[in-house]
């Protein structure tokens, strides 16, 4: 019986890492340049909004300023509205593919992961999005943070089966 439970658990956990909405379309290499352009624009917005500022991030974690909470809260509200509109009007991708939403189950690993992520964010003053913008502005010390994030991601993948989920 235990083997069956482990197999079911593995199937459930493996769905967390599967991209169920992955496009099946084949594109030329230059088709991905649009992501570079959007990434650069995103980085410029981060810089202008002071999202990459270590001081702004520290203010947020010390509850001294609403600035970062306002930005994050705005993003959450835009995301909620976007998902509701996609569901209500059955909006498809620009290539006509259906967008599907799948329910996720809560597990204690999300608490541990969130605490580790928040701790790293508070210590380094960077999360994955602004990290590249910080490096782009000349804060080359953030390369250490980038490499640490890559190593941490690799370690998670390596030890995933042994971690609490």
Automatic annotation (TrEMBL):
Top-level lineage group: Bacteria
Chain ranges passing through the membrane: 35-55, 67-86, 111-133, 139-159
Acetylation among keywords: no
InterPro entries assigned: Sulf_transp_TsuA/YedE
The entry's keywords: Membrane, Transmembrane, Transmembrane helix
Protein name, per record: YeeE/YedE thiosulfate transporter family protein
């Amino acid at each position: 019986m235990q083997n069956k439970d482990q197999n079911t658990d593995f199937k459930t956990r493996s769905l967390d890492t599967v991209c169920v909405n992955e496009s099946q379309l084949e594109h030329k290499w230059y088709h991905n340049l649009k992501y570079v352009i959007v990434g650069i624009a995103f980085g410029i917005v981060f810089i202008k909004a002071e999202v990459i500022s270590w001081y702004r991030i520290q203010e947020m974690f010390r509850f001294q300023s609403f600035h970062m909470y306002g930005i994050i809260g705005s993003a959450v509200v835009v995301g909620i509205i976007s998902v509701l509109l996609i569901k209500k009007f059955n909006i498809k991708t620009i290539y006509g593919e259906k967008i599907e939403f799948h329910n996720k189950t809560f597990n204690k690993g999300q608490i541990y992961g969130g605490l580790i992520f928040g701790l790293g964010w508070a210590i380094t003053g960077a999360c994955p999005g602004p990290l590249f913008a910080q490096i782009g502005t000349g804060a080359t010390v953030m390369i250490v943070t980038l490499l640490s994030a890559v190593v941490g991601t690799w370690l998670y993948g390596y030890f995933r089966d042994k971690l609490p989920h």
